[in-house]
Amino acid sequence: MFANSVSLLGRALARSGLVATLLILVASLLLTACGDKPGAAAAARPPAAVRFITVAQRDVAISSEFVAHTRSAHEVEIRSRVNGFIERQSYTEGEIVPEGQVMFSIDPKPFQAQLNAQRAALDRYQSSLAVARANLDRIKPLAALDALSQKDLDDATGRYEAAAADVEQATAMVETAQLNLSYCTIRAPFTGVSGKAERQEGAYVNEPNSLLTHLAALSPMEIEFSVSENQIQTLRRQIERGLVRPPRDQSYQIEVILVDGSVHPEVGHITFRSPDFDPTTGTYMMRAQVTNRVGHLRPNQFVRVRLVGAARPKAILVPQRAVQQGAKGAFVWVIGADNKAQPRPVTTADWSGEDWIIEEGLAAGDRVLVEGLVTLAPGAAINALPLEAAAAGAGNGTQH
After folding, report:
1. Domain end: 293, 313, 333, which one?
2. Is residue 200 pLDDT above 90, yes or no?
3. Cβ contacts of residue 85 below 8 Å, gap of 6+?
4. In this structure, are 323 and 247 located in the same domain?
5. How many independent structural domains does the chain possess?
6. Is 1 domain-assigned?
């Protein structure tokens, strides 16, 4: 029994020692927590590693894009000039037709018959003219000798002149018949892409349904687009303020951007500016002409055009990733005089490649942060390195 009592006492003392140890540990943690200062962790945070560029002024080419549509500079309706049955269609619809190629043939037999008849009539009138001329030649000397009266001479002269007029009329009729016969063969007036055939072989064509197809030249191609009144006024104000320098003699060029984003290989030029605005849309129509030797462009195609030739003198550019949006608009992070990060409001203009053109807010020599912006706060301590040096150390990157 004494042994049992000793055992129970030992276990109680052991439990008491464990509880005491736990209480000491908890008290130590609480004292440590109460002794920490609120800003101690923040003070121990290392400066943010950032990269910056030093902005500089330089002339930058600028451009504007517009939705446009194409149209052939030379498009015509191919019509029959004579009535008759279509004997043959000699071209493939939708293909390029070279100048002079036969496109349609009208049955020529009726027109050949008319030509033969007119030639026969001409021969008859020429014979009558020869007889009238011979009679006049015989009468003239006799009338001069008073062997025949003046009336006989006048009659002979009249018959000769009438026969000559008949010959001229018959000659004209022969030429008309020859033209009508030639119109039976309808050729391409120039090289262009052909449209669908409006009349099939065997169909009868006359004046009301004389349209056979269309033909459109592919080069040069005309590009029409519209510029809004606001865009025109904005450009004028920027030119007046010296923010934009137009090309010499206002000779803007255009680049045609196809639907897949590729650029047409040949540059176009502005050929027409509308003298007034369209009152229904408030836009100003412009037309350009571009060479289309390869034939990538087709009539009535929607494309985009890039108007190039203007420039921004002494512009300031920063990478797009450096410009952020806040509650009050766009801003960038700059390195202040105390070498700490400070936000700077900016006014952006257009894009130039992968950069923003900054219209207001920055000056040459400002150091703009472009990397490591996520954890920045106003007045934050930073560890800044030039972007060029970081890129050279890493062996890659983009320089500005």
Report:
1. 313
2. yes
3. 106, 107, 202, 203, 204, 205
4. no
5. 4
6. no
Which amino acid is present at 21?
A: T
d(CA 135, CA 83): 44
The model's pLDDT over 24-55, given as tens digits with 9 standing for 90+, comes to: 444 444 434 444 444 444 445 688 889 999 99
* Pairing assessment for the beta strands 48-54 and 382-386 based on DSSP bridges: parallel
Beta-carbon neighbour count of residue 343 at 10 Å?
A: 16
* Cβ atoms 272, 287 nearer than 8 A: yes
Alpha-carbon distance of 227 to 286, in angstroms, equals 8
Give the pLDDT confidence of 125-148 residue by residue, as tens digits: 999 999 999 999 999 998 888 888
Closest CA to 66 of 319, 298, 279, 257: 257
Write the CATH number for 165: 1.10.287.470
Between the CA of residue 214 and those of 85, 93, 187, what are the distances in Å? 19, 10, 12
Q: Distance (Å, rounded) from C-alpha 350 to C-alpha 18?
A: 73
pTM across the whole model = 0.64
Would 191 be classed as within a structural domain? yes
- Same domain, yes or no: 229 and 243: yes
Helix (H) or strand (E) holding 309: strand 302-319
CATH number of the domain enclosing 251: 2.40.30.170
Q: Please provide the DSSP assignment of 173-213 as one string.
A: HHHHHHHHHHTTEEE-SSSEEE---SS-TT-EE-STT-EEE
Domain that holds residue 120: 109-182
Phi, psi angles (nearest 5°) of residue 354: -105, 15
**Residue 164 pairs with which residues in a beta bridge?**
none
